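Dear support,

I submitted the protein below through the web form. The confirmation email said the job was done, but the results page showed an empty box. After a refresh the structure appeared. I'm attaching both so you can tell me whether what I see now is the final result or a partial one.
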Amino acid sequence: MKSFEEVELCFPELLNSSCRKAVRPHSVSMLTYILLCSISLLTVTLNLLVIISISHFKQLHTSTNILLLSLAVSDFFVGFLMFFPIVLIEGCWLLGDLMCSLYSVLTFTITSTSVGTMVLISVDRYVAICDPLHYPNKVTQKRVKICVCLCWICSAFLQSLLLKDNLEQPGRYSSCFGECVVVIDYFAGRANLFLTFFGPVTVIIVLYMRVFVVAVSHARAMRSHTAAFSLKSSVSVTANKSELKAARTLGVVVVVFLVCLCPYYCISLTGQDTLLNTSTIAFIICLFYFNSCLNPVIYAFFYPWFRKSIRLIVTLKILQPGSCDTNML
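What the results page shows now:
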């Protein structure tokens, strides 16, 4: 057993008031640093490409893409905030109690906003597939922008209210210097889980089940038609195919989102984290963060406009006059 002098402290000058560092092999620490930094950098870079693409090119300023922009912004901040947990690899929070509380509020807000944006995406696809004739009138860019703003504002307000005690007295629940601890009232925490995750997820699943049923019926109807279409019908069929493709792509995004986040929230709800080993918990948290890196990869596979915009951004052609009017579709 190590003597007191041999124990590594987060703040050696504070002696008994300092937390102890987590002792692990140097190779393991370096590998963890490299892995987390790589995921964080990749997440920030890929989502920044999505943000630039949708913001710059006018042809991409559609209602659906505004929702993707909101999701990309939240994923960008997830990647940026991942740099903060990296400093906790050795078990020490070196940024102070106030930053700990602010970091917690930001993390909760961004996660809540991502879930809210997924609900909006599901509603968008539901209206587009199930009520296509009224979609242009019901889902306008102005309405979508208002919904996105309300999503961010409500998430920030709700999470600030939830962590009010931690913000008013930062570090009140820390047992030593170098610890980042936030405590949430049990009933408030459970209510927050249902309001910001399980409730929205139920809505997402119900809407996409309906979208799936209607999409299948549309696909069968299109296959059963003969080639003797009028021009108007042909345009309608093309539009339906486009909406079905968008629904499929965003469906993949939603499924990946649920797969990555459900384990984390299920453990939070059941409180079984004490029964899991450190490696399992680390994997679940990494899976939670890695979802933000996967969304742009999905766009690259399914959206030709995203691949084209990446080429234009990397080659700096977006700096040319009139590049915002480039045909992307």
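Response: this is the final, complete result; the empty box was a page-load delay. The chain is about 70% helix and 0% strand.
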